[in-house]
Amino acid sequence: MSTNRPIKILHVVGAMNRAGTETMLMNIFRYMKHEGITFDFISYSQEEAHYDREIMEMGGRIIRLTKTNSVKAIYETIKHYGPYDAVHAHTLFHCGVALLAALLAGVKIRIAHAHTTSDDTSTLARKVYTTIMRPLINALSTQALACSEQAGRYLFGAKKVQKSDYTYFPNVIEYEKFLSKPEASVNRFKMEAGCGKNLIIGHIGRFIAAKNHEFLLDVMKYAVKKEPAIQLLLVGDGDLRAQIEAKARSEGLTDNIYFAGIREDVAAMLHSMDVFVFPSLYEGLGLVLLEAQACGVPALVSEAIQPEADLRVGLVSRKKLSDGPKAWADEIIELSSQKETNTSKIKAGFETNGYSLPKAINALIRLYNPETGGAYERHIDHLF
C-alpha cells in the first residue's frame, strides 16, 4: 500500500471508559490499526480508564491533561505528539476549545462530534459558555458529525444540520458478536447472580443522573408485586452507584437486584435478560440498545431514546416516563416473552439502517485524509 505516511488522528475525550462513544471508537480503532492508522487520545481523567491499556498496546497514546479549557495545553500536545491528519473532538461544547487549538497548530481536518441531546445548562455561566461555544464550533470545524439528528441539533443548531459539512454518523457496533447466545457464559453468570430461571430485566449504563436508575427501582417496587421472583440486573459503575444501592436496601429490594459492576462479557449479560429497560432522561443515541437488539432482547425505552436506535425489527417499545413506574412494570412483564430468535432478520435491520462497521470506517478514513484515504479504504474491506 503506497501512502506518504500512516494516518494519525488525535481524539479528544473525557476518559476512555466503557461507554457508548468510547466503545464505538475502540471498535473502529481495532480495525484501523491493522493498516497502520493510529489513534491518540487526549484524556481529562488522571486515573487509568477501561480502554487505556488496550489503546497503548495497539500503538496509541493516552495524553492526560488537567486544564480542561486550556487551548494552550491542546496546542502544545498537537505540536509535541503530531503531526496529526485530523483532530476529532467528542467533548460536547468543549469541542470549541479543541478545534481552536487544532486550527492554531495547523491541523487541516477538524471534526466536532455530537453524542448527546442535553447538558447541564442550569447555571448562568454554563449558558454563557454554550452560547459562545456553539458558533465557535460551527466556524472552526471542517466537518460536523452526530449520532442522531437531535444530538446534531443540540450541539450545532438547527441550521447546521442542513449544511453539506454536517453528516449523520451512526454509532456502530460489531453486531455479529452479539447474534449467537453464549450458552456457557450465560449459565455461569446466572449461577453467579443466583437468578437461575427467574424473570430477568436488565440495564447497562453508568450510574449517573441521566440514566435514571432511581426510576428503575421505582419500577421494581411494582414489578415484584406481580412477579416476586423477578430480578433486576444492573451492569455498570459510576458516582451514583452507592446511592442506588442504598435506596435498594431501604426499599427492601436487595434480593431482587444484582449489581454486576463493569463487565467484559456484555453479550452474556444481554442474552441473560428477558427485557432490556432504558429509562434515560436524555441520550445522544443509546448504543447499548443496538447491542440489546443484536441479542434479540425486547426493550422498553423512554421518549428520550433517539429513533435512530430502533432497528425496526419489532424489539423496541416506547413509554413516557410520565406514565409512571406501575405502567412500566406492567409493560415489562408483558414484553418478557417476546425475544426475537431470527438472527437473519436482526442482521438485515442493522444493514438496512446503516449500522455497518466497514462503511463507518471507510467514511471516517475519507474524512480524515481525503487525498490518500482511498488507498486505505480498499485495504480495510478485506478485514471483514
TrEMBL record:
Keyword line: Transferase
Pfam families membership: Glyco_trans_1_4, Glyco_transf_4
SUPFAM superfamilies xrefs: UDP-Glycosyltransferase/glycogen phosphorylase
Organism of derivation: Lentibacillus persicus
Domain Glycosyltransferase subfamily 4-like N-terminal: 20-175
GO-annotated molecular function: glycosyltransferase activity
UniProt entry tagged with the keyword Transferase: yes
Taxonomy, superkingdom: Bacteria
Alphabetical list of InterPro entries matching this protein: Glyco_trans_4-like_N, Glycosyltransferase_grp1
Name of this chain's protein: Glycosyltransferase EpsF
